[in-house]
Amino acid sequence: MIVMVEQEDKKGHVIHPPKADELLDIAIIGGGMAGATAGIYSGRYLLKTALFTKTKGGAIVDSPDVENYPGFKTISGYELMSRVLNQAQHYGTLIVDEIIESIEKQGDVFVLEGSSGKEYKAKQVILATGLMRRKLGLQREDELAGKGVSYCATCDGFFYKDKVVGVVGGSDAAALSAILLSKYASKVYIIYRRGKMRCEPYWLKILEDDPKVEFIYNANISELKGKDRLEGVTLDTGKELDLDGLFIEIGAEPSTDLFAPLGVETDERGYVKVNEEMKTNVPRIYAAGDLTTGSAGFKQLVVAAAEGAIAATSAYHYAKKELNNAR
User: Fold this and answer.
1) Are 77 and 57 in contact (CB under 8 A)?
2) Environment class of 164 (CB within 10 Å of its CB; exposed 0-12, middle 13-18, buried 19+)
3) In the CATH hierarchy, which top-level class contains the domain 7-131+254-326?
4) Model confidence pLDDT, tens digit, residues 158-184
């Protein structure tokens, strides 16, 4: 658990972070851009706030270069999210190194159970759990994970210096992974099921100009080869590739297991339905970031930040109304 000590802001106000065992005004579940920004705003609203996460910064920390977030020509995902989380801590949000495994509503309070077995209580909840990376669904995929099969080029790219690797996917994430891997590997195959990548033209141009990169379009992987570790793949075109590593970047999807028992409504794809105030159909539960149906489905850091700020503001308005009613 990371506990922030009392500190003063620039105006001399003493900031008191809450304790994890006291009744929270807001529990934020998820430590990516949406959750961290919600922590900044709820802290500034002087609400007792705790943010629960085991993955500080979310998936963007794997990105070596973020070039479309306002204020930075380029910054690593890790550095950007470190700044945002530190800012949330500065304004009094407690960051708890814990996975929340269940949420129950008991009267007017939400009871959250962590992976440690500890319980936390909150008046309101902001869901900012992001998305889970999709797998290919092939035999031995789980067995070979960490043995040539990877879902994180930033984490594992260094281990493939002067080796041959493949990247599956056609999105920005796939393109960025391939660009990073080309700095280490001797050869990078991009395997995509469509006829052209759908990443930003800027990234595609970099890849097309890279002599290490070879595109294999209109193909899927049908088999993973190798005994103790990955040695290659077979494509559904019949072609075989000898590979030392395979990086899977085929998108992500929301996991609804945590909040489904509460009756939080989702669309047919599993994304949480929200209104313009980031409210779900369950009173006092909000959602923000990539797991929502908000912002026309535009999954970007700047959008996640906006939705996190809106969710925290909506929670603040409810808390303010509740306080006025109690007087």
Assistant:
1) yes
2) middle
3) alpha beta
4) 889 999 999 999 999 899 999 999 999
Residues serving a catalytic function are 152, 155-156
The values of phi and psi at residue 76, to 5°, are -75, 150
Domain ranges of the chain: 7-131+254-326, 141-248
Please spell the DSSP secondary structure of 178-234, one letter per residue: HHHHTTT-SEEEEE-SSSS--S-HHHHHHHHT-TTEEEE-S--EEEEE-SSS--EEE
Burial class (CB in 10 A: 0-12, 13-18, 19+), 90: middle
Contact in structure between 29 and 39 (CB atoms under 8 Å): no
Q: If you average pLDDT over every residue of the chain, what do you get?
A: 91
Parallel/antiparallel/unpaired status of strands 252-253 and 132-133: antiparallel
pLDDT of residue 65: 75
Q: Among 174, 224, 184, 181, which Cα is nearest to 204's?
A: 174
pLDDT in tens, 291-317: 999 998 888 899 999 999 999 999 999
DSSP code of residue 137? -
Alpha carbon 45 to its chain centroid, in Å, reads: 25
β 94-97/49-53 pair status: parallel
Other CB atoms closer than 10 Å to residue 161's CB: what's the count? 10
Q: Is 80 exceeded by the pLDDT of residue 326?
A: no
Range 28-44 burial, b when 16+ CB lie within 10 A, else e: bbbbbbbbbbbbbbbbb
Strand partners, 168: 191, 248
Q: How far is CA 21 from the centre of its chain?
A: 26
CATH superfamily placement of domain 141-248: FAD/NAD(P)-binding domain (3.50.50.60)
CA distances from 270 to 28, 261, 283, 292, 293 (A): 20, 14, 19, 9, 9
